[in-house]
Amino acid sequence: MKIKVELSGGLELLFNKIKTHEITFDDKKSIPLKDLIIWMKDNLLTERENLFIVDGTVRPGILVLINEADWELYGGIGYDVEDGDNIIFISTLHGG
C-alpha cells in the first residue's frame, strides 16, 4: 500500500521541514487513520509532539483532508486509509 501525506500551514516544520511524504506499507492493504497518525508521530515527527497530536488524534486547529475532502465526510479518525489515498494535514493556528 502506498499513500501520500502532505503537511502545510507550518506543520512541515515539525517533520524536518519536509512537506510531502510518500509512505509505503508493504504488509497492509489499509491502515486506520488513527494508526497512521501514531506511526507518523513515531517515525516522521522530529520535534514538539504536542503541536501535532493530543490524546491519540491530531490536535484541534489542524484540518485533515482525505483525497481533498474534509475527513469528517469519511468518518474522521475512524477512516481506513487505502492504497493511493492522499492525506493532507493543514495547521490553521498561527503565532502572532
From TrEMBL:
Gene Ontology CC terms: cytosol
Pfam families, alphabetized: Urm1
1-thioglycine found at: 96
Family that this chain belongs to: Belongs to the URM1 family.
Post-translational modification: C-terminal thiocarboxylation occurs in 2 steps, it is first acyl-adenylated (-COAMP) via the hesA/moeB/thiF part of the MOCS3/UBA4 homolog, then thiocarboxylated (-COSH) via the rhodanese domain of the MOCS3/UBA4 homolog.
Keywords: Cytoplasm, Isopeptide bond, tRNA processing, Ubl conjugation pathway
Subcellular location, principal: cytoplasm
HAMAP family membership: Urm1
Glycyl lysine isopeptide (Gly-Lys) (interchain with K-? in acceptor proteins) crosslink site(s): 96
GO biological process: protein urmylation; tRNA thio-modification; tRNA wobble uridine modification
Alphabetical list of InterPro entries matching this protein: Beta-grasp_dom_sf, Mopterin_synth/thiamin_S_b, Urm1
Biological role stated in the UniProt entry: Acts as a sulfur carrier required for 2-thiolation of mcm(5)S(2)U at tRNA wobble positions of cytosolic tRNA(Lys), tRNA(Glu) and tRNA(Gln). Serves as sulfur donor in tRNA 2-thiolation reaction by being thiocarboxylated (-COSH) at its C-terminus by the MOCS3/UBA4 homolog. The sulfur is then transferred to tRNA to form 2-thiolation of mcm(5)S(2)U. Also acts as a ubiquitin-like protein (UBL) that is covalently conjugated via an isopeptide bond to lysine residues of target proteins.
Pathway given in the UniProt record: tRNA modification; 5-methoxycarbonylmethyl-2-thiouridine-tRNA biosynthesis
Location in the cell: Cytoplasm
Species the sequence originates in: Tieghemostelium lacteum
Protein name in the entry: Ubiquitin-related modifier 1 homolog
